[in-house]
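Archive entry: two folds, one per protein. Generate the first.
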Amino acid sequence: MKIDLSGKTALVTGSTAGIGYAIAKGLAVAGADVTLNGRSQGTVDAAVKKLAAEAPPAKVRGIAADVSTADGCKALVAAVPDVDILINNTGIYGAKDFFEISDEDWTQIFETNVMSGVRLSRAYMKGMLKRDWGRIVFISSESALNIPTEMIHYGTTKTAQLSISRGLALLTRGTKVTVNSVLPGPTMSEGVETFVQDLARKNGEPVEEAAANFVKQNRPTSLLQRFASVEEVGNMVVYVASKEASATNGAALRVDGGIVNFIA
């Protein structure tokens, strides 16, 4: 199977690094014209330059906009009025005791993780339906199913993404538009890599050993027994965004390394 996205346009939010960048790169390599997004113009420009060098002759552009706000989403849509592929990747997280999570914390994480995808899907999905082709993918998490007690607010937003994704998929009945969610497990993004390196120094062990021990201790049900790479997650998203995935719609697709300990 050869995935060819030539002639398709894609927007990946939160794509200057980590999983978002890996998704953007995968889409670009497959031939899509890709728009990167981040909050800072400097980081966006750097990511565009990097991607253009890594995936020639892909057409890459970048738009700096804070999609955790209504104004930021509006500005992004004004700059990019239509896309064939929307990847709702922007998200924040952070461990915090439930009794210490303030209303402001709840609002911030909900606006970022949930409302960014709601607003952008609302803006782009009608065009997809009119053209009778499109892909919307929400980057959720295994935490949507295994709610982490140290991040209940985060898990809640990831579960909400599954509901929104499924609901939007129902609106595509009989069309060539699909809406799906992808659920990564522990993934070795730049931030996680820094965390693991610090952990390795603290424990006086090799980085690889520190990473493996962290997964075994904190995600004992993992079948992979290691962090996934951002490319491994990106590969799933590129497939879901492809023409070849036309029969996959309304699904929650796990790239969690087998952490979720049930079948469905």
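Generate the second and append.
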Amino acid sequence: MVLADAGAAVVVADIDEAGAVRTARRITDAGGRAIALRTDTRRKSDLDAAIDRAVADFGRLDIMCNVAGVPSDGLIEDVTEAELDRVVAINMKGVLFGCQAALRAMKPRRSGVIVNVSSTGIDVAVPGNGVYAMTKAAVAMLSMVLAVEAGPHGIRVNAIAPGATITNFSQRHLYDENGNVSQEKFDAFVERMKSFSPLDIVGEAVDQALLILYLVSPAARYATGNIFRVNGGQAMAW
């Protein structure tokens, strides 16, 4: 909604088609321009199709935000090959495929901005967070290298590294070990995350969206190859 409110036409590409449709409808109901498209970021063809649709419907691609990601909880010694493949496919390959698709549309116009989503997990070594943090560290390095490669074509590339931000990503903390809803468990998670911030708060989705708005705007014309953190200072205090 933040980018749409700023005037962007938006392709909401998500594996959750119903959720994408709801988001696109919120934008159009508010007078903006948006379409929804079911997209599995593990599939390069899906991301190519999403970019093609953006260009077909709106004339060009100015901004690409690679946001899709999944958590992975567990000790490194216990990770299975299946879990590793699942997380790498979404958190690493999906971002790479998204960048490739965006470059194909942006390079001929010699302009564009790509924003990838890393994580504050790249800054702190938390037991049980190894596989997730590893993939997000890869996103950070991918973004820096791509900034060097794409810069000569007029394309800026940055990554954001959010701290604890309450979104659907956090909902796994709402359930106990038996799969039952536990508001007490979720509240304890939120309080623990707040304790790592000097501000004693956790983030909301809009905090990250506003950072992305800055990065894709002319105000950030000199910003590329950076990892930007809106994390309440968590990485300092962990």
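Annotation attached to the second fold: The longest helix spans residues 81-106. Helices lie at 2-5, 17-29, 44-58, 81-106, 130-150, 183-195, 205-216, 234-237.
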